[in-house]
Amino acid sequence: MMPLLTLIVFTPLMAALMLLAIPREQVRALRRAAFVFSLVPFALSVGLLFAFDAAKGELQWTERAAWIPRYGIHYLLGVDGISLFLVVLTTFLMPIVFLQAWDVEKRVKEYLVLLLVMETGMLGALLATDLFLFYVFWELMLIPMYFLIGIWGGEHRIYAAIKLVLYTMAGSLLMLVAIIYLAIAHQQQIGQYSFAWEHLLQLRLSPEVQKLLFAAFALAFAIKVPMFPLHTWLPDAHTEAPTGGSVILAAILLKMGTYGFLRFAIPLFPEIAVDAMPVVAALAVIGIIYGALVCMVQPDLKRLVAYSSVSHLGFVMLGMAALNLQGVQGSLYQMLNHGLSTGGLFLAVGALYERRHTRLIAEFGGLWARLPVYGAFFLVVMLSSVGLPGLNGFVGEFLILLGAFGRFPLAAVLGTIGVILGAVYLLWMFQRVMFGPLSNPQNASLKDLSPREIAMFAPLVVLFLFMGLYPKPLLVRMEPAVRVTLERVESRVRQASASCGEEAVCVAEGGRPR
Amino acid sequence: MHEVQPAVVVENVTFLWWIPLLPALGVLFHIFLGRRVGKTAVSVVGPSVVAAAFIVSLVAFIRVWLGPPGLVLQQVLWSWLPVGSLDVRFALQVDALSAVMILVVTGVGFLIHLYSVVYMHDDPGYARYFAYLNLFTVAMLVLVMADNLLLLFVGWEGVGLCSYLLIGFWYDNDANASAGKKAFIVNRVGDAAFLVGIFWLFWSFGPGSHTFSFSEIAERGRQLSPAVVTGVTLLLFVGATGKSAQLPLYVWLPDAMAGPTPVSALIHAATMVTAGVYMIARLHALYELAPISLDVVATVGALTAVFAATIGLVQTDIKKVLAYSTISQLGYMFLAVGVGAFSAGIFHLLTHAFFKALLFLGSGSVIHAMGGEQDIRKMGGLRRYLPVTYATFLVGTLAIAGVPGFAGFFSKDMILARAYAEAPMLWGLALVGAGLTAFYMFRLFFLVFLGECRADAHTRAHLHESPRTMTIPLVVLAVLSVVGGYVGLPEFLAWGDRFSAFLAPAVGGSAHAGGHPHLALEVALMGASVFVALAGIAVAYRFYIQAPQTPQQLAARWRRAYQLLWNKYYVDELYAALFVRPIVQLAHVLWRQFDVAVVDGAVNGAGGVVQETGRWLRRWQTGNVQHYALSLLVGTLLLLGYFLGRG
Amino acid sequence: MTTVPASWYVVLGILLFTIGALGVLVRRNLIIVFMAIELMLNAVNLVFVAFARQQQAMDGQVMVFFVMTVAAAEAAVGLAIILAVFRNRETVNADEVNLLRW
Fold first, then answer.
1. Does the pLDDT at position A513 exceed 50?
2. N or C terminus of chain A with fewer C-beta within 10 Å?
3. Judged by CB atoms within 8 Å, which residues 15-54 of C form the interface with B?
4. So what's the pLDDT on residue A436?
5. How much is the pLDDT for A512?
6. Same-domain check for residues B587 and B538
7. Contacting residues of B for A163, CB less than 8 Å apart
């Protein structure tokens, strides 16, 4: 079998190496090469999409190679319905980010190379099924982002970059400790070290240990998501990052946190995870409403979009906390939605920034008169983020809230209020930027979107419509993997509670805790 | 007490999707080619796609009409949301109820598209306007043709979006954009409740697959506990109060008049705002299981009918008067469905679509002629200048006032008769509302068309009747405002209530159920409503023709009451004080005091502690190698001493 | 032929090492400091050789070669650094070369 996953993961890195061979002065060649190279992993992942066995819930296309076998460290890759679309999302967005990179003038070569390295890191983290390997890729994503913000960022870029790194490290180092503990526990229980995800699932750990390990994993992922109240790195990082960095940060890096919950934190420690879900749901709801409220009063466009991420990822976590098919599938779907629509919002804000070199809402107003094409795209992106039925956002939000209502009715109702607030801050923002009189003379001579920029937005809009009207192809591919995950959790919880003699906590759909 | 529903006959057809698809193609045309091909092409394509949809709708209608009772045409397009037991399909259906609705939407919609061709002709956003208007038609058709609650919700929010876009169509004025935003957000409040209702329904249905289709809801609804049914129906009704501008979520509709007048006619009078009524009629099986909810619906409807009518008494903007009258008339429709007279509600929806669209288009013609002026105090005597508008507007006014022979009379009478049988108190309210309606509509009519012309000389010089393309829709609608009522005559007259008989399979045979009032009683009730209508007209005549100074005197005498009405009961101010401002303030506090001060403060504080420690420790770092060597030596000696001393 | 007892070498080594260490600590001229370091190294070498002789083992002798090699390399690098410092700052006074100070 072809090592398709390895190809997907490492073609960006190869491209980065090839880019190094192009002299830095040849900016046009660099940009074109980066864009074309980034199409390769996209094409490969589209191939994966078709080659993917939709009926299977277990990992497929697995690859295995020894790395440090003495300590049970292997190069393990695999894909299932949970990671499949996140991979495609990543490879789909990267070419768009490279199109956007035409606007970057400073140190073009380094910028492009770092982006490509980052792509390898992200894809690797999504596809790695060895926890050690996962950790390596996890950290590999962070370093390029540090430079992207620190070099190409805005005024307070150093502060933002350091804050991002320290925040993330604080969580991920604890996770590393937990990973190593798991490998040692495996050695003690089974007889040999192993970092393989599928092996570690079999471990039986005492509740006290599980609690600590879950906390370590959850902290790392919760910071990345970010969940309230660990979110304050996000507004700074987003605001200061260059447009491409913001897009990647919002669209993909944040998903690593939610993906981590679904892939690692919940299946590895199911008994504790089930107990922790009410807390997760509560924090998620607080995040939804809190993020939305704070959004309303932001004077800075990028900061507004950043806080909207806090709100949207609250939805993702709420759906996951429901631990039923609808909720978790909605949560997965919403990860994609958020990646596309918030990525789109950052592109839109970036396009304005390139024209006016300010992000303050007050500087704009009445832009529709000058930028009708931009306005139309911005409108659709905004509506997708609002969750208008018929576009992608609605499918995710609906499934999440539907699932959450089955388990945490109050949280779902409060989350629905978040849906109202979502409309409030986005429409208000849109109104202040696009509508009203064109009063600022500096806006009078703005140019509408270039064909290159249209090429950035158009695929997004097509996807919004497709995912809103015909989500079935995605949902059916996700469902088996989600089902397997939930069944795994359910059976473990049932075993645990059977041994305690308590009534089983039912996590499958249809069963509300009574 | 309800008679057994006729068996539902489902017939799969393949042409239904053309009905929403045709306007959708129009949308694409306007977006991609609109600005390139020029106005002529847009003005051909815009209305004609709706006309084509009307023809297809007519075919569907005729098939339902001629087919066996209870015939449902259905077309399943694709599986939309298959997740576990949830299996929502993208499926369209046309039964008697939908057939009526699609005819209204495409028929009245076509007339208004036609009217817009001239009305909007000089607008730079011409293609954009038709794109929105066609998009609205698509969404509205999806709403009324959906075979399940979730797809209905897609249309439901879709029309909300178009409403938002069209209210703020002239975006360069901030007030318009704000009105659009207000409409969308207030609707969202209702929609949130609607969504919660859907969630509750889903989790109450228990195991098995869930398609949310209306037939499934009707069937499974019977197994639900009364509390759940009541809760769900009330939540869905909250959604309806948003969309259909009822108490307490009506506040967006008056502001929505900021949009172009044909939009007000189509969206904010004839079609979209009636979606709530349609939804309840569509879910009548569920609502009939929840008597408490029906009582709430009826009460809210009756209260809104009177409440909005009182505000309408003193408004001076021609469109605002019509807006409040729309809210009031929607109240009647809710009263109707609330007392179980679903077909009467839909009947009023139908006639209202005709006469209110007529009135709005007429007002558009007036505003057009007056060069954009909307204040009725500056009009008057326009009969001479706008004869066609005058005549058609009179027909509309007579229809809405409930004068016998006109459409509004029959539908309103059907509602009142049923309300009297079910809830006499509400009947009383509705009767008061009817009198008020007759009064303020004739006040409007007299001030605009009769008396002296109060416009300035410049405006007066430019007064002109609107061109044909605008007056033809007026005439057609005027005819419909008369004959539209004769499809649903009182039982004892001529061919009787054909309309309810046609709708019966879809919304229950309520017209015959529940003990019909005696002939004498029915005639007496009719007499009462005719009396209040005529009384309202007479008072308006007295106030605005015979003794024009009376209104000022009254306003001066009842100053307080007048102020209250003039300021619309201060509801907007109340909402601003109760919700808008506290939320914005809370947001500020959360951001500045919590996010920046507390959370980020803690984070930066942790960083600060490390930095301070480092600053203190760095004093050891003198940079002088010899100091380092000294400490090395001292350290070595200390270690040596320790180990030697220990050993 | 009487052999000099190993303790004498050790005492001499301690004396040389102390002189060297004091030189490193108190002298300000980097060249002198450098020479003092060499002195310390050679004191250690002396002790190594003495003990090697006493124990009749080659380990100490071998270690001395390593130390001498390192010392030679160090002299080359160290003198180069001092030269570079002098070129840049026109001084070899240790007190004035404090760029490492926080």
1. no
2. C
3. 21, 24-26, 33
4. 86
5. 41
6. no
7. 603
> What residue type is assigned to position B179 of the chain?
A
pLDDT at A119: 93
**Do residue B595 and residue B449 come from a single domain?**
no
CATH of domain C30-90: 1.10.287.3510
Structural domain includes residue B432: yes
The amino acid that residue B299 corresponds to is: T
The closest CB to that of B622, out of C26, C33, C98, belongs to C98
B86: left (phi over 0), alpha (psi -120 to 50) or beta: beta
pLDDT by residue (tens digit) across B167-192? 989 888 888 888 988 899 899 999 99
Name chain C contacts of B626, Cβ cutoff 8 Å.
24-26, 33, 94
What is the C-alpha separation between A424 and A475, in angstroms, rounded? Answer: 29
- pTM to 2 decimals? 0.88
The minimal CB distance from B177 to the residues A324, A431, A479 is found for A431
- Structural domains in chain B (count): 2
Contact B437, B401 (CB under 8 A): yes
Please indicate, yes or no, if residue B589 is contained in any of the structural domains.
Answer: yes
- pLDDT at residue B96 above 80? yes
Domains of chain A, residue spans: 4-500
Q: How far apart are CA B227 and CA B516, in angstroms?
A: 30
C24 to chain B: which residues are within 8 Å by CB? 626, 629
- Is 80 exceeded by the pLDDT of residue A193? yes
pLDDT at C102: 58
Query: What integer pLDDT is reported at residue A31 of this predicted model?
Result: 92
The distance of B250 to chain A (nearest Cα, Å) reads 17
- Distance, in angstroms, between C50 CA and closest chain B CA? 22
The answer to whether residue B532 is domain-embedded is yes
Q: Which domain holds residue B611?
A: 573-646
- For B488, phi then psi, to 5°, come to -135, 70
Is the Cβ–Cβ distance between A315 and A328 less than 8 Å? no
* Separation CA B371–CA B463 (nearest Å): 8
For residue A278, how many other CB atoms are within 10 A of its CB? 14
Distance between B624 CA and the closest CA of chain C, angstroms: 5
Instruction: Report pLDDT digits (tens) over B461-516.
Output: 888 888 888 889 999 999 999 888 888 877 777 677 788 888 887 887 544 444 45
How many Cβ contacts (< 8 angstroms) between chains B and C?
30
Residue B195 to residue A297, Cβ atoms within 8 A: no
Interface subset of B 62-81, CB within 8 angstroms of A? 78-81
C100: confidence class by pLDDT, cuts 50, 70, 90: low
What b-and-e string marks burial along A80-92, b requiring 16 or more CB atoms within 10 Å of the CB?
Answer: bbbbbbbbbbbbb
Q: For residue range A489-509, list pLDDT tens digits in order.
A: 888 888 877 765 444 344 444
